[in-house]
Amino acid sequence: MAMFDLSLDKLRAYRPEVAAPADLVDFWRRSLEKARADDLSATFTPIDNKLAVVDTYDVTYAGFGGAPIKGWLHVPAGTTGPLPTVVQYFGYSGGRGFPHTTNLWAQAGYAHFLMDTRGQGYSSGNPGGTPDDSAYAGLNHAPGFMTAGITDPETYYYRRVYVDAVRALEAARMSPFVDPDQIVVTGGSQGGGISIAAAGLAGLAGINLLGCAPDVPFLCHFERALQITDKDPYGEITRYLKGFRNEVETAYRTLSYFDGVNLGRLATVPALFSVALMDAICPPSTVFAAYNAYGDAAGTNIQKDIKVYSHNEHEGGQTYQQDAQLDWFANIFQSRA
């Protein structure tokens, strides 16, 4: 894959007009209040993870609609008190998998909370444990999740996922191993988009975060993505609109409530993004659109940075980005200590 998007200089200045619905904040306040009508019912059950240096807890809590959402909480072995915490969201089709597969941040000395994405976990070898049993899941849509319920923001799949993500923060804060004042969110691809949404919505839920670290984030600047890439998962939307020709405006209106550009504007905490300039799945201009708008609500003084991987596709920085995050998380948590 060659570099197909804007030049890096133009990307750094790229601030497209991404219309936000007038009731964006009200919609999300209502959605979060609706979820809070159900008791969080967070449970943390210790399991044998077959590891010597990490302890793991099987997590269940009530997400959107009271649905049980699964996750893992990893902590350094023998932990007895609260720790700085990294909450992580998964990429598209990924699930929480086996407890030994993803626990880097616990190895670094933090509590590490991982949220299952409802209905996913089917293609990575990391099976999920959270079905999407919403009544809306069966509405007309293209195969996949991108168009499930897309005719109305009330029924769209990612309304459930984004609320689940905020509820994950609430659940994490209930653990005695989690310092509720020292939490950052992270994730790659879909997980990056969810982390941006969580950072934007946390304030509406009265949750104080310390930072947000989205890698090659998905779910940003939908309209631009559909114009310049036919790769999945964005391709699911294209295929849907190819058939349902009369729903283009309706679909774009719905997507505007979930766009990382619009939700990232609401964020008020520091951020460390990453982007890959040969990424045809999450095109660079969509990532920079979200990065450049991120924190607009907090003004120009918000601290943010973006790591650029010039010759990588959607894999992005991988271990290089994790190395950068290890430094960034340490600085974020130290500044709060």
UniProtKB/TrEMBL annotation:
Catalytic site positions: S189 (nucleophile), D279 (charge relay system), H314 (charge relay system)
Gene3D superfamilies hit by this protein: alpha/beta hydrolase
Domain of life: Bacteria
A GO BP annotation: polysaccharide metabolic process
Residue ranges occupied by any Acetyl xylan esterase domain in the UniProt entry: 1-330
Any one Pfam family match given in the protein's UniProt record, by short name: AXE1
InterPro entries: AB_hydrolase_fold (IPR029058), AXE1_dom (IPR008391), CE7 (IPR039069)
Binding-site residues for substrate, renumbered to this chain: Y92
Molecular-function annotations in GO: carboxylic ester hydrolase activity
PANTHER family: CEPHALOSPORIN-C DEACETYLASE
Protein name as it appears in the record: Cephalosporin-C deacetylase
